[in-house]
Amino acid sequence: MSPFFVMSLLFGLTFGQTASLCAPSEYTIHVEKRECAYCLAINTTICAGFCMTRDSNGKKLLLKNALSQNVCTYKEMLYQTALIPGCPHHTIPYYSYPVAVSCKCGKCNTDYSDCVRERVRTNYCTKPQKLCNK
């Protein structure tokens, strides 16, 4: 192997994450409860974007940690709570949701992220909608 190829490979593995386009992005969550009269549309931020991944075809030549398949995930987040309008007194009308403050490329943590790409659109309202700007 030529020294140029080896240096290019090492440079790409070391600094490849700096080319990632992973950042907080505006997103609207639609929340409703069966007992409540309205659907709440909440404007928040989520982590979204492109993260560098590495082809595992060269796994014999590379270290195991160089083969990671990273996703755009939360680096720092906070939780906010919204009040769902039109709920009867016996129902808890609150909904807590994450707000992305900063993002990173890393392994997906199922404790606070959905690590499977959703194929069916389920983020919609079936009841009259109220808007909540946070």
TrEMBL record:
Pfam families with a match to the protein in the record: Cys_knot (PF00007)
InterPro entries registered for this protein in UniProt: Cystine-knot_cytokine (IPR029034), Glyco_hormone_CN (IPR006208), Gonadotropin_bsu (IPR001545), Gonadotropin_bsu_CS (IPR018245)
Annotated signal peptide: 1-16
Xref: PROSITE patterns: GLYCO_HORMONE_BETA_1, GLYCO_HORMONE_BETA_2
Compartmental location: Secreted
GO molecular function, one term: hormone activity
Keyword annotations: Disulfide bond, Glycoprotein, Hormone, Secreted, Signal
CDD domains: GHB_like
Top-level lineage group: Eukaryota
GO biological process: G protein-coupled receptor signaling pathway
Domain Glycoprotein hormone subunit beta residue range list: 21-125
SUPFAM superfamilies, per the entry: Cystine-knot cytokines
Any GO CC annotation of this UniProt entry: cytoplasm
First-listed, main subcellular location of the protein, grouped into a coarse class: secreted
Subunit-level organization: Heterodimer of a common alpha chain and a unique beta chain which confers biological specificity to thyrotropin, lutropin, follitropin and gonadotropin.
Similarity-based family: Belongs to the glycoprotein hormones subunit beta family.
Protein name, entry field: Thyrotropin subunit beta
Species name: Vireo altiloquus
Origin organism lineage: Eukaryota, Metazoa, Chordata, Craniata, Vertebrata
Gene: Tshb
